[in-house]
Amino acid sequence: AEMLADLRQALGTDQFFPAYQAVISLADESIVGAEALVRWQRTGHGLVRPDQFLPTAEESGMIGELTEYLLDRVLYDVKTWRAAKLIDDTFKVHLNVTSRELHDLRFADAVRTALRHHDLPATVLVLEITENRLMSGDNLHRYTLLALRKMGVEVFIDDFGTGYSSISYLRQLPVAGAKIDKSLVDDIAVDPTQESFLRAISDLIAACELKCIVEGVETIEQSAKLKAMGFTMVQGFHYARPVDTSGFSELLLQGR
Ligand code: G
Ligand code: G
Ligand code: MN
Ligand code: NA
Questions:
Q1: What is the pLDDT of residue 134?
Q2: Domain topology for 2-255
Q3: Which of 46, 54, 105, 199 is the most buried (most CB within 10 A)?
Q4: Ligand 1 neighbourhood includes 38 CB (under 6 angstroms)
Q5: d(CA 253, CA 256)
Q6: For every residue of 112-132, which 3-state class applies, written as one string?
Q7: Of all atoms in ligand 2, which is nearest to the CA of residue 236?
C-alpha cells in the first residue's frame, strides 16, 4: 500500500527516469540504438530497481501511465540527440511494455500522439514485450500489434527462448523481431551444446523472418562466437551498461 501511494506520487514529481543500454552492431561495434530501462529515484529510499516496483505498478494498473511518461521522456531524448547530430535517423530506441498496454485499446493512439508531439517518425521506436505475455492465449493484443505495425512502430519479443512459445503461434504474431535472452548466451563460449541450441533458436527466428538482437553479452569470447555465428546486433555489459541520459549522450559523443 505504501509502495502504491509512493508510486502515484513519484509519477507526479518526476522521480522516474530512463537508463539507456546501447544496442551494438557487431560489424563495427557502433551504437545503432538503445534500450530504455526505467529507474526510480525514490524519496527516502535511493535508487529502486524495476523488479521491485513494476509488479505493483502492473497490478494497480498504473503501468500504463508510467509507460506513457517514459515514452515522452525517451522521445524527448531522441529528439535532442538527433538535433545535436549524435544519432542519425536509423537509430532506434527500445521501450519495454507489458501485456496491459497491449490490451489497452487506446495505447496505439497514445503512441501515435507522442510521436507526433515530438515530431518523430514511427520508425524511431521499438516496443519490447516479454515472450510469455504474448503467448497468453487471448487475442486482444493483436489489435494493438496490428495498429502499431500499420503505424511503423516495431515490436520485439523480449527474453526469447525462456518461455513456452508455440512455434506455429510465433509465425503468426505481427512482430518485427526477437531478443535472445542472456541465459542462452552465458555458456556459448565454453559449452558446445549451448552453441547448437543457440543456433537452433537463431534459425527459428530467421525462418520466421524476424530481426534478432542477442542480449547479455559479457565477454569478448562470447562476442567473437556470436559474430562467427552470424549474429549482427547485440547488447550487454561487455559493450555498455545502462546509463542515464547524460551518460548516454557522452557514449554517443565518444562513438562518433
Ligand atoms: O534494468 P534491469 O534491472 O534494468 O530491468 C529489469 C527488468 O525490468 C527487465 O526484465 C526489464 O525488461 C524490465 N523493465 C525495465 N524497464 C522497464 C520499463 O520501462 N517498463 C517495463 N514494463 N519493464 C521494464
Ligand atoms: O528483460 P530485459 O531484457 O528487458 O532486461 C534487461 C535487463 O538485463 C536489465 O536489468 C539490464 O540491466 C540487464 N542486462 C543487460 N545487459 C546485461 C549483461 O550483459 N549482463 C547482465 N548480468 N545483465 C544485463
Ligand atoms: Mn527488454
Ligand atoms: Na531480454
A1: 73
A2: TIM Barrel (3.20.20)
A3: 54
A4: yes
A5: 6
A6: HHHHHHCCCCHHHEEEEEEHH
A7: 19
